[in-house]
Amino acid sequence: MRIIIGKATQYPSHAPISEREIEERLATSGARYTSGRRLVVAALSVVDGPRSAAELHQEMGGEVPVSSVYRSLAVLEQAGVVEPHHGARGLTRYEMAEWLAGHHHHLVCESCGAVEDIELPKDLEVELERLVGKVSRLSSFSASGHALEVDGRCASCR
Ligand SMILES: [Zn+2]
Ligand SMILES: [Zn+2]
What we know:
alpha+beta, Arc Repressor Mutant, subunit A, 4-stranded mixed beta sheet, two-stranded antiparallel ribbon, 6 strands, 40% helix, binds zinc ion
């Protein structure tokens, strides 16, 4: 288990994905919300965890070239619409930013490398915040948020 302190800020869960807000975000960084980028956002919005460009390419039925998926992800990351998740084997996967997708944590499979999203019930989030507070005080650190990663084996690798 890893607790990452100060990485993520708290956002409400189940925030609806707003196409208009994404468009505005992209415009702020000087980019357009092209059809290719819309496809990437649509694909990322329905999966249950971070995905690499190659995985997204597959999930989109292979119709969008993987190089185009890479470029779309880079632009979306630049604009803060998607966030990278760095896997243990150096594989970068992406997911919708927390301000769009809601606050959640990750279950990481040590065997196949799959990363799954998990939302915690309110009482566990409160407990986690309390723990983060204690950890911060140990190191005179001022925490602004947290992200929890649980390592183990996914259902298909067990
Ligand atoms: Zn697995
Ligand atoms: Zn996630």
